[in-house]
Automatic annotation (TrEMBL):
Organism: Zymoseptoria brevis
Gene Ontology terms describing biological process: cell wall organization
UniProt name for this protein: glucan endo-1,3-beta-D-glucosidase
Signal peptide limits: 1-17
GO function terms (MF aspect): glucan endo-1,3-beta-D-glucosidase activity
Residue span, Cell wall protein YJL171C/Tos1 N-terminal domain: 37-99
Family: Belongs to the PGA52 family.
Keyword Cell wall biogenesis/degradation belongs to the record: yes
Length: 478
């Protein structure tokens, strides 16, 4: 993935003590400092705008867009997001958790799309970027909440005080090490001016640092971006996948094979999204459960909710594409059990995604319009948001980097070890304007509820640079 940094981010950069003082390796412009077990990005949310796609003409190739303003905790990644996997990768389990009273699909929201991400997923990663500016707004008792109940949107006053579950039956807490709680909602309104970030050179390390199935069934319950103001309640599982048990609840597996069974293809935009075949290599006419197998090198799978976009509920989407809602809200957690085996292949260039597995998150507008293609037909270029969770940047490399892309951008130079043998468990937690990534104990269970204590401790344990704990902290702006 090509990394771009705004000039403002460079000017705001400060160098402070961090794990890079223990040593740095520069590999083809990618800086690698220390192997860690956890990375936290602080100050993610900010005020800004991006260009939301409003039309696509397959005859002329012309795309229209309109400025769209955002603000608040974790914005714009508080909007609906999609999860992407690139092989060689074996996904054994995947789970999505949100605070009770949260949901993966709000009433008619808007969607757009993303950047020309090179076919390898795009970036070349000249690491280190950053910036930010955050605002948040808590949803209090008595506020109006919308929820999808028995297929109908209903509205009531929020009487949830952060205690027991509101929309799901109580269950024992699950988890093992530690993690964090719920966060606020943000008001997003149109603005009259869109930013025009310019590409900038990479920063030196240390900058911006502080220290065989069929369709699936839904498991989500309520509607609006409404989270408890505190962290006393468990987080409910909204979606779950288990490869060995052939279970897929609350989610669908898509790919870029439009025209093969589902979706569409044309000479202008190429393949749209489609339902993915069981091995991920082809399209399908209906949702399939991903098989218990390793995704082939370069094969990409997109995970979204099982709730289709209807009547403009996702905003503008490419005509005739397969369109589903993404995972919504300013507080959400994604749990993975996965492996990234080395298939022994070598890429012809840095843009050839052979033997370079990755897990990343996009603003869901990106795949719903045009993930690969003309930058004018994507909100990625104007900053609608991407976060790379585990990305291998060179064929056969054993290091996984993380990076935030958008109008505020940054990439930590510490890295995770690629799980080439067997599998590991890991969590991606978006909460309280921070993004936490942590390798979990193998005994961690992805049960129906995730204990708030587990999540709170996970956040607390990853908020300080630590050589002893193998924790890296990356500060975005300040």
């Amino acid at each position: 993935m090509k990394s771009f940094i705004t000039a403002a981010a460079l000017l705001a950069a400060t160098v402070s003590a961090d794990l890079c003082q223990e040593g740095v390796v520069d590999t083809n412009g990618n800086f690698y400092c220390q192997k860690v077990n956890a990375i936290t990005y602080t100050g993610v949310g900010h005020d800004g705008s991006y260009n939301k796609i409003t039309s696509m003409d397959p005859t002329t190739g012309a795309c229209s867009s309109a400025p769209y303003g955002y603000s608040g905790s974790l914005s714009p990644l508080d909007e609906e997001v999609s999860i992407h996997l690139r092989g060689p990768l074996l996904l054994k389990q995947f789970a999505v958790y949100m605070p009770h009273n949260s949901s993966t699909s709000p009433p008619p929201a808007s969607k757009a799309r993303r950047h020309v991400h090179d076919k390898r997923h795009g970036h070349a990663h000249a690491h280190m970027h950053r910036e930010r500016n955050a605002k948040e707004e808590k949803r209090a008792l008595g506020d109006v909440v919308s929820a999808l109940i028995d297929g109908k949107w209903q509205t009531w006053a929020n009487n949830y005080n952060g205690g027991a579950a509101a929309a799901a039956a109580p269950a024992a807490e699950t988890g093992a090490p530690a993690a964090a709680p719920a966060g606020p909602a943000a008001a997003i309104e149109p603005v009259n001016k869109a930013p025009n970030p310019a590409p900038a050179p990479s920063q030196a390390p240390g900058a911006n640092r502080v220290g065989g199935g069929s369709s699936s069934s839904s498991s989500s319950a309520s509607g609006e971006k409404s989270d408890p103001a505190d962290a006393t309640g468990n987080w409910a599982r909204q979606a779950y996948y288990n490869s060995e048990a052939a279970i897929a609840e609350g989610l669908v597996f898509l790919n870029h094979k439009g025209g093969d069974g589902s979706g569409t293809w044309d000479m202008t935009y190429g393949n749209s999204l489609s339902y993915a075949s069981k091995d991920g290599t082809a399209g399908a006419s209906s949702p399939q459960i991903l098989a218990d197998t390793t995704l082939a090198s370069s094969t990409e799978i997109v995970i979204m909710t099982d709730q289709p976009c209807t009547d403009g509920s996702c905003g503008y989407t490419r005509p005739d594409t397969v369109a589903h809602h993404g995972f919504d809200g300013p507080s959400k957690a994604f749990f993975f059990e996965f492996g990234m085996p080395d298939d022994g292949q070598g890429g012809a260039s840095e843009y050839d995604a052979v033997n370079m597995p990755a897990i990343w998150m996009l603003n869901a507008q990106i795949p719903l319009t045009l993930q690969y293609g003309d930058a004018e037909c994507s909100c990625w270029t104007s900053g609608c948001g991407e976060f790379d969770v585990f990305e291998v940047l060179a064929a056969g490399d054993t290091r996984c980097k993380s990076t935030l892309h958008g109008n505020v951008a940054g990439g930590d130079s510490d890295y995770f070890e690629r799980p080439t043998s067997g599998t590991i468990k890991a969590a991606l937690l978006l909460f309280d304007d921070n993004i936490h990534i942590k390798i979990l104990d193998d005994s961690t269970e992805f049960g129906p509820n995730m204990g708030a204590t587990f999540l709170t401790e996970m956040a607390a344990d990853t908020m300080e640079d630590s050589v002893e704990k193998l924790v890296s902290l990356f500060k975005l702006g300040g």
